[in-house]
Amino acid sequence: MKDKTQLAAELRRIDGKGYGSYKDLAGPYDMGGFILRVDHVQGDPFASPSRLRVEVDRRRNGFTPGLDAEAPTRLALADFLARAFSRAIKKTKSSRSGPRGMGKSGLIEIDSGGQEILRRTAVFVSDDRIEVRFTAGLPARGRTVLGRQAEAMLIEEVPRIVADSLSARALDMAALGEHSRTVEDWTELQKGLAGKNLVSFIADGSLLPRRSGVDPRPLNSPSAVRFQSPPQLRVEMSLPGGRKVAGMGVPEGVTLIVGGGFHGKSTLLEAVSLGVYPHVPGDGRELVATIGGAVKIRAEDGRRVEAVDISPFIDNLPFGKDTKRFSTDNASGSTSQAANIMEALEMGAKALLVDEDTSATNFMIRDRRMQVLVEKGKEPITPFIDRVRDIYREKGCSTVIVVGGSGDYLDVADAVIQMDEYAPMDVTDKAARVAGQYPTGRAPESGGFSRNNSSRFPAAESFDARKGKREVKIVARGLGHIQYGETTIDVSALGQLVDESQTRAIGELIRLYSTKYLKERVDLKDGVEAMARDVAEKGLEAANPRGMGNLAEPRAFEVAAAINRMRTLKVK
Ligand code: ADP
Ligand code: MG
Description:
Layout: E1 2-3, H1 4-14, E2 27-30, E3 35-40, E4 50-57, H2 71-94, E5 108-109, E6 123-125, E7 129-136, E8 140-141, E9 144-145, H3 147-165, H4 173-193, E10 198-203, E11 210-212, E12 215-218, E13 234-238, E14 244-251, E15 254-259, H5 265-274, E16 288-290, E17 294-297, E18 305-308, E19 326-328, H6 333-346, E20 351-355, H7 361-364, H8 368-373, H9 388-395, E21 398-402, E22 415-420, E23 423-426, H10 428-437, E24 474-477, E25 481-484, E26 487-490, H11 500-517, H12 524-538, H13 556-564
Parallel strand pairs: 1-2, 15-21, 15-22, 17-20, 20-21
Antiparallel strand pairs: 2-3, 3-4, 4-7, 5-7, 6-7, 8-9, 10-14, 10-16, 11-12, 13-14, 18-19, 22-23, 24-25, 25-26
Helix pairs in contact: 1-3, 2-3, 2-4, 11-12, 11-13
């Protein structure tokens, strides 16, 4: 293996040459204390930056085996190191005088995540080593190599970053301890939900509101109100080490969140919906945990739908269009919401999270007057209100639903939480009295949830990843879109995708699904779940043929949801 001196000599040699000579750098270098690997060299200073890796001996760097003996603490350690590496990058950047050339020249970056703690490919921790993937823009002016700048970057900065972040001596080990405890606590909370028949738990003292619609950090204002459970819904949950925490349990069944506009209903539902992930210390939602089977549902007009049985919600479409195998390139608000629910149930959802703000009104409710004016035979929609109990009874899938407008829902609720100036109150009994006092006069429209056969078998030709001369072209475009071959998948309506790196991983996972898990007699659910199990067990590497350091693990629900939205999807 070449060493640091040889790397420096190499950089001096190519100084002033054409950018292509950077390609000679590929390979491993013994940097004294760590190994640097140049995995992929960018084509020019404006292309995606080069991919590098550093590898340290974990024992020698002070990371004792006890730090990450269990899955949650290993996740926490990897996540903590990615964030520490990111901070160390910022530190070197601020001590530097100016830019290192054109385009991405001199930029060092690592995919270290936001408020959620996700498994990602940026940091790999094993029993004997720690490997960190990052990117670097190799410096150039025009297409001319700036060898001296590259030297400062690779010979000076990278070792400083490694020393600052990948050695136990340099790190705040108390903070690592807190990071680990946070993930362990959340894991234990989530595990404890089923035994208490809960969909979600929100600890007293949690801080749910965010800084802004585009800033997911906690609202740091004196007017922020911390969460306090109403006494009727208060439960005590176990944490590791015999500790306990009290808070509000959202029970299984049908739960309404009611209250005036701007009183914090959507903020509560959002916290519940992101409670499927652990959060970083200081987020405010560290002790909010939701069952892994919870799926946020919304209307999504314009989406593609392929052969989904939406007949429990919609039948008798004009011109006799089939709703047992409903396909459309342009779903309406109501048909899209029906498809979103049926697809979630197909994947085994155990809770639907619905906000009236993002629902189709005619999907949610048909009141007495409308029932009389437009007779049932002329209305294809059986509204959600008439199905929500069936979904619980027959599919074991609970619903948490924000309703400010439609009191008809009081008839179908098991629990009613009212948000009042950001404070939750249990108004279940009052709601029952109100429902008795003011009957809606509605005629229920449901005759039970039909035993629909939800197995769908995607056709292999749906997943052509070729584009032009490229054998495989898969690119994430922000959080909301994936370019897959010639087609673009719109995943912007998936409210539980939180990181562009998850979106990127979904693109790769669709490819993996189509090449390894898509089989003649295996339906979409079983195929995607088998893949998700393998990924949970072995990590994302199987979906990472190009060794990217910017993939984060999505849930099976979101992978299936992306497949379901492919404009090229064909189901047999
Ligand atoms: P609703 O859905 O009931 O109309 P939102 O959940 O959208 O209300 O909240 C309205 C506003 O109040 C948002 O700007 C939100 O950030 C803020 N907010 C929500 N919960 C709290 C809280 N606990 N403390 C302070 N502000 C909050
Ligand atoms: Mg709202």
